Amino acid sequence: MRFPEYQPHAQPPSTPQTIRRQLRTVIALCIGFALAACGGSDESPLRTALAQPVVAEATPAGGSPGDAQTATFAPSAAGPANDSASATDAQIAAAQPALPQATSGPSAGGADAAASTITPVVTSPDALTAAPPAAQPLVVAAATTSPAPRPGANSSSASSAAGSGPSWATYERPFARDSLWNSRPVNPVLDMTVIPPTRWGPTITANDYSVAAFLAQASDGPMTVHGPDGQGVGDPDTGHARPITVPRWPAAVAAAPGTDGHADIVDPIDGVVHSFWQLRREGGTWRATMYAWAPLAGRGWGDPAHYYQGARATGVPSIAGLIRKHEINDGQPLYRHALALSLDASALSAQPAYVFPATAADFNAATTNTGSIPQGALLMLPAGFDTARLRSAALRKVAETLKVYGARVVDRNTTTRFALYAEIGSGFNLMPQGWDNAVAEDLQIIADALRPLVSASGWLDGDGQSFVPSQKLNMLSMRGPWMLEQGGGGGSFDSARQALVFPSTGSTIVLRQTSGNGIGRLAWAQLRPGTTYRFSVEAAGNATLKLEFRSPSSYAVTTATPSLGHGQQATVTVPTDGSQLVLVATSAGAAGAWIRGRLVEE
Q1: What is the DSSP string of 416-438?
Q2: CATH assignment of 136-150+472-601, given 3.10.450, 1.10.760, 3.40.50, 2.60.120?
Q3: pTM score, two decimals?
């Protein structure tokens, strides 16, 4: 992306040219799918491109990834700006719930600092040296069984008690109250790293390269979005390109005019944020290059299992950290959430390319980035930064937010020192009367002062309650590929349910997954030998799931759990001999059978 040049004493170009950072997903998906269809190795370009492995489910003989069924996301079962020179402590306190004294928290800003030393993994899972029992590739079929509840639809931290504060997980306040978007560090300690100067100065943009949020209503009808040139829409979670059907499509949906074509649809009925990249309308057909979804009541970030939850490079929805229409003139001295920020390659780190809570980065980060700030990092203004020196009330509000909540690095831009994002159509404009040297100078002052977070004494959620951000998240995905070991029919991974769905056959079906792709391999979320994890199962139709570790030399079982049904759980300690994780899913062939597992460090 490219933005107007904000330099003191110089007029900006009248029509800024903009450039997309790269076609990161569609190229990777197309190459990865071609290799999968041709029997390519696990070391696919798709894995490298997204900085962690994603393996498409096995394609039936004679078929192609383009033959995949349409993915339908069914309903879940389940005032004026402040003109004062600087916001006072009393104003900030009035703008949010009472902030209790934080208890002692992690020594490095939650998990942020600890994660910053971890190198991203871009290799495929190690292959078993002894082949597993012979099995036929699983034929991927459209799910016809009743839906499983959508994970994350009803988060315990999504809403506040009556009268205690704002509601969370809504169109206006997306994600849970303890999402790191809605939370703030206490006593932050900042690094000395400075954002380097670039060709274009910093900006806060509500133009063609930002995004708008659209609210789905019960009366809205469904819409199927197709891929470019008749191909499928890239879906990193499944590893397939396929048409995507959104059950409620607002009539007002319009993609951002820039080449990014961002658009996010917030559906509070299903509790979902649908996030598109390069969305456009061609005649009567909607097309997009990439799609991902996030739980509206979730973290606002991916996890090791469902690692890509939005169209930003870091896998977050484009509305995350967005300055929204309803916030701009609300009379408050700051925005009550972290902001979304992009940096040029000269500021971004090549390794690690991303840190917690981010789960992805631009695909060519290792070869393009030359700086030291990883995506996912939190940048803040020092507590002593004097916002009174800023000559724009709108910019002072942003600066106060950067002092309290900061901004997360979510994307890469092209030669812009930093970019923050306001909602398209919000009317946000720091220079309403035309080019303003004073505002341009103040933006550079902010850029000079922004620093990455190193540590904090604790964290406060959106309701002002102390909590500790945790990296102990679900690591187990059901995406496969699965091999048919017994029975007829097959099964399918349903991203919307994060579940393996079985067909109704009336006879036993046994599926085995040996690739290791059931574990979301992120830089900051590796299975650690000698560590104990809790394995739990949700299921219907008497389906069961078993977790095994098998010797890489003999394929003998070294550790295993029982076959677990709905509501059951067990603990398992990862062997230290390099054993490979294997999942065994079984269904009696009953109608409506599905299963999903969770694996979380104790």
Answers
A1: BS-EEEB-TTS---S-TTS--HH
A2: 2.60.120
A3: 0.78
